[in-house]
Amino acid sequence: MSSEEQSGNKIHPKSGNRMSKTTNAYNDNIDLDGGEPEYGVAGACLLYCSIILTVILFPFGACLCVIKIVAEYERAVVFRLGRLQAGGAKGPGLFCIVPCTDEYKQVDLRTVSFDVPPQEILSKDSVTIAVDAVVYYRVQDATMSIANVENADGATRLLAQTTLRNVLGTKTLQEVLTDRDQISGKMLATLDEATDPWGIKVERVEIKDVRLPVQLQRAMAAEAEAAREARAKVVAAEGEMNASRKLKEAADVMSESPCALQLRYLQTLQSISAEKNSTIIFPLPIDLLSGLMKK
Description:
The protein is α+β, with helices and mostly antiparallel strands. The protein has ten helices and eight strands. The strands form three sheets. A three-stranded antiparallel β-sheet has the order 3-2-5. Strands 6-7-8 form a three-stranded antiparallel β-sheet.
């Protein structure tokens, strides 16, 4: 038995003394302890008649009506004349019931997952979005899941939908898109606290998808494209500025030596001839042109 089952929960605490009465703070009208209730004269007569009938039909009727089997991952909650039996849920393995007076309900303890349908939500900044999620839960107390709620699975599903709407309604669109882990954690804490009286343990909540309106998607895409173009222009301008600085430094170095320009011209001719071009460009000094323009 796990420590969680030994300690119980705040609604259905476990006690080391089997004779002590179990309190049900969730619903005072339901006694989760069971015990030995008073069935009355009619109930006692019906119970004794059922026991005598079982003894008479033994072993044929007893094997079919009295002995029941539940699997390792299941528990059976037994009611006798409508009253919850003491000792909690039965199983796993064999257990016995009294025909005609006892009925039992089997509860699966395995983890169950379900999808929360897409919810149309108005975010804090007045943006309509559709969000769906997935929830994983399991039954940790079979008795509470039967006695305290009519349909634990259906109640958990409906609660998950309302919790998703309530949590996301307090978030902006940017927070919904970036803080999924925080939103999932808040939903997990809210669901786990609310389903504790039902014997349900919510193990995990995950946001699956956030769907935006088509117009908003186009607007966000245009905004992102404009931002990328602005960054590209800034990078190109910075590159031009760095290139102009390098060209100025190169011009200053070449101006210090008259032969540097001639060597650069010869190097350019060599690179042109390597490409097998028939065109050769001869540079004309600008100083010569300025002299002719003055005349």
